[in-house]
Amino acid sequence: MPETKxxxxxxxxxKRTGVAFAAGTALLLGGIYVNADAATxxxxxxxxxxxxxxTAATTEATTEASSSVSDVVDxxxxxxxxxxxxxxxxxLLDFTEANATAWSNLPCGSxxxxxxxxxxxxxxxxTAAKAxxxxxxxxxxxxxxxxxxxxxxxxxKLGETASGYGSGNxxxxxxxxxxxxxxxxxxxxxxxxxxxxxxxxxEVEGTTPFFIGVEPTSWTGDDGTSYAPLAGMHDGMEDMLAxxxxxxxxxxxxxxxxxxxxxxxxxxxxFPETKEGxxxxxxxxxxxELVLAAMEPWVDVADDTxxxxxxxxxxxxxxxxxxxxxxxxxxxxQGDYVRIDGPGVWIEFxxxxxxxxxxxxxxxxxxxxxxxxYGGEFSF
Length: 380
Prior knowledge:
The chain has about 375 residues and is of the alpha+beta class. The chain contains 10 helices and 16 strands. The strands form 3 sheets. Strands 3, 4, 5, 6, 7, 8, 9, 12, 13, 14, 15 and 16 form a 12-stranded mixed beta sheet that branches.
């Protein structure tokens, strides 16, 4: 498979600056919200020293990335070892377009997904399955694995009120054989979650599509814990729009209205031909930092090293990136919508009326990449 544009940009960025700069980008961008009431905390990405020519940092970046994928493969094999042969056949599937695109934001179970259902696993097997997802995703508070577990908790919360919801209704599959020298995908999801991480030759080749939504948007658990899994995403987008002047808001405003994200399930490759809204090159440095900070909670779905590198690549593309919105800029009512569209990055966030909690809004979002959805393995 030829290298995707995003992969080439990412490798070029590493060669020019080393991972210390890439990881530092994430650190400098600011906070990630744990929940609606939490204070911000810096990202957890880190890296070693950079030599004068960047060689040491580049070597360490490659080692860290390879180690991360190796950890995922080890966790995947440990999970497979807990399964019988019939269960393994449910998990180990071919990396085909049909299997890769079998995801949805709906509580539609196996009719729209592939893999093994969490509810069928023993406690030991479920622990091993979650260890795979934890190894593959980011370590930040309110992002990565922490955010995934909160989405599962949100479905359990819905299940207290309506049938058909719950953390048992999530499916895990390996498309292709987990390895550090082949191409395969970690494919996981259920209602309001689709995680697609693609690996090739021991490196992360794609971190999208990533769909995530939540209903209710916030709640308090029986133990008094406050949950707001998408608060960082919502607040980052709101802060980005709040940083614009009235004239800039007018330029960013879209004439269309939106009831959902454009590039949800079944809309692979359907990026608009023309970018709309306000070009980021027109913004000040401080405003551009707000755009990067808004991207970060989605990018942080991947392991920390990969997330920092991808964000660095998106930073290099900022001048050719556009931001746009519809409805109101505080993202609080049905139809409020915001988008970031760059040469690589594509992120949408929309407010919808509640389905179970009908007096509230709930959120849908999607993160895609123009070049590396599903690792760039398919043409749409």
